[in-house]
Amino acid sequence: MNSLPIIDISPLYGDEPDAWQAVAGQIDRACRQWGFFYIKGHPISPARIAEVLGNAQRFFALPVEEKLKIDITQTRHHRGYGAVATEQLDPTKPSDLKETFDMGLHLPADHPEVLAEKPLRGPNRHPDLSGWATLMEQHYRDMQALAQTLLRAMTLALGIERDFFDTRFNEPVSVLRLIHYPSRDAASCAEQQGAGAHTDYGCITLLYQDAAGGLQVRNVNGQWIDAPPIDGTFVVNLGDMMARWSNDRYLSTPHRVISPLGVDRYSMPFFAEPHPDTLIQCLPGCQDDAHPPKYPTTTCAEFLLSRFADTYAYRREPHAV
Ligand SMILES: O=C(O)CCC(=O)C(=O)O
Ligand SMILES: [Fe+2]
Description:
The chain is an alpha+beta fold.
C-alpha cells in the first residue's frame, strides 16, 4: 500500500463494452481500497492545462488589493478570492499557507434560485484579466464532463442505472478551484502546512498538480505516502458525501499538502457535486441485510454547508449561508 493505482480511462470513451467494464472494475477497486487513484487517457489536453495554469499564475501575481476586489468572504455564495489563511483544514494546526480562487456554475442574478437566495447559487466573480472568464468557464464545463464520465463508470458497482448521476448532476454545485502555495524556506513556517490534513466534503475531486510535489495521502495503515505529480494525469479522490452515499463502500481518505520548499506550487482541484437538492440516501447496491444504511438521508446542500462551517471562520457568522 505504498503507491496509488494509475488507471487508463481511455476505454470509457470507446465503444467496447468489455473494455469499459474492465475500467469500471479498476475504478471500483481503487475507490474501495484507497479512495484515491490517478487517471490517464482523459481528454483534457496539455495545452489546456498550460493555459489554465497560466491564468492561475497571472491572477495570483496581482497585488493583494486587486485580488481582494473579488474577496470570497464578501459573497454569500462562495465565489472568488480566498487570501492566505482564510481556510483552516486541520483545526489542530495553524491556518493553511495558500491562496485560492473558487468558481462554480454561473447563474445570472435573475435565475429563480438566485432570486430565492438559495445557498451556493449565483454568478461567478472573475478577475478583470483578458481572456480569463471564457477560458475558465469552458474548463469548468470540460472538468464537469470528465467527472461525470468517471461517475458513470461507478454506477456498475453501485447497483444504479447508468444515468443515475447524470440526472442528479444537472445544474451542479461543483467548484473549480485554483490554489497557489507560496514557497517557504526551511526555517519559516515549520508548523504551517500548505493544506492541513482533511477529507474532501463532496462526491469526487479531480486534481491537477504542477511539478512541485507535496501532496500526501494517508493509507489504510495510517502512514502518509507521497502522491507525486505524474505528467498528463489527474489525481482523483472521493469525498465524505460519496462515502455516505455509498454506505462507506467507498473511502474518503485523509490527505494534506506539505508547503513547497523554495518553490511556488500551483494546483487546481475540481470538486464535483450534484444539484443542491439531491437526496444523499444509501445507494441500492450498497445495502443488504449485513450492511443496513448507516446514515440518515440528507441533501447535497445541507451536507456541504455543514462541512464548510467547519473550515471557514467567516461562514460561521449568522449571515453566511
Ligand atoms: O493542492 C493540492 O494538491 C490538494 C488540495 C486539496 O486537497 C483540496 O483543496 O481539497
Ligand atoms: Fe482535498
